[in-house]
Design goal:
A hairpin with a 2-residue loop joins strand 8 and strand 9. This protein has 7 helices and 9 strands; from the N terminus they run βααβββαβαββαββαα. It is an alpha/beta fold. The chain is elongated, with a radius of gyration of 22 Å. The two termini are 43 Å apart. It has 2 domains: 2-149, 3-Layer(aba) Sandwich (Alpha/beta knot); 168-215, Trp Operon Repressor, Chain A (Orthogonal Bundle). The strands form 3 sheets. It has a 5-stranded parallel sheet with strand order 2-1-6-5-7, with helices on both faces. The relative contact order is 0.14. The structure holds adenine.
């Protein structure tokens, strides 16, 4: 997959995505990541990319033209353009699975107070990673690119690594344990030590449903678990 980011701060994306699994995916050619800095698409002496908002107000607004030119340079017929903004559709695992099928993603990252609204129609989708305001679209792009890259076939070495995981099927994942079997007096659940694959699968499925019901009743499968006993303290 090819991903390009239109950003004034490429290092905010390049650096975190050079480590660990995504870093390796880049080295191995599963992900090709490129950057376009709107500053390189200006024509004035100061390479101006932002200006004061019309109508007054605090902060600066990113100008449309440098972003437009950057996008024009990199956009192809099969590109899918995503504008990162807290106003956008909320990112989730089903959308990550959809985006992982695309050949070319382009992320437009706003900074300062945002981008001139006239850029919005250039994007195929406005996307938010949650109901909070970041300093810019860059950390959001990192989260989305990370979640999408690990779904590209071949990136995770164990083929089934993404099959049973959290949010796939609308459930949180069952808890994991590793050695030692007893840690500071806390034991690993019996079922996991049984060596009985059917029992282990059943235990994990029950745990996943119970956990989802307790921690995330808002998820599609969150209503499937038994309700917690009445009188149990809710924080
Ligand atoms: N830019 C600023 N905040 C954001 C958010 N929550 N999601 C996506 N882009 C953003």
């Amino acid at each position: 997959m090819r991903v390009d980011a239109v950003t004034l701060f490429p290092a905010m994306i390049d650096s975190p995505l050079s480590e660990s699994i995504v870093g390796r995916a880049r080295e191995e050619g599963f992900l090709e990541l490129g950057f376009l800095n709107p500053r390189d698409f200006t024509e004035d002496r100061h390479r101006t990319v932002d200006d004061k908002p019309y109508g007054g107000g605090t902060g600066m607004v990113m100008m449309a033209e440098p972003v437009y030119r950057a996008l024009k340079k990199v956009r192809k017929k099969n590109s899918f353009v995503i504008l990162l903004t807290p106003k956008g559709r909320r990112f989730d695992q089903p959308l990550a699975l959809e985006l992982a099928k695309k050949k070319h993603l382009i992320f437009i990252c706003g900074h300062y107070e945002g981008i001139d609204e006239r850029v919005t129609p250039l994007a195929d989708m406005e996307l938010s990673i949650g109901d909070y305001v970041l300093t810019g679209g860059e950390p959001a792009a990192v989260a989305v690119i990370d979640a999408v890259t690990r779904l590209i076939p071949g990136v995770l070495k164990k083929e089934d690594a993404t099959v049973n995981e959290t949010f796939t099927g609308g459930l949180l994942e069952a808890p994991h344990y590793t050695r030692p079997g007893v840690w500071r007096g806390e034991k690993v659940p019996e079922a996991l030590l049984s060596g009985n694959h059917k029992l282990i699968a059943e235990w994990r499925s029950t745990q996943a449903r119970e956990l989802t019901g307790k921690a995330r009743p808002d998820l599609p499968a969150g209503g499937q678990a038994k309700k917690p006993a009445r009188g149990k303290k809710k924080i």
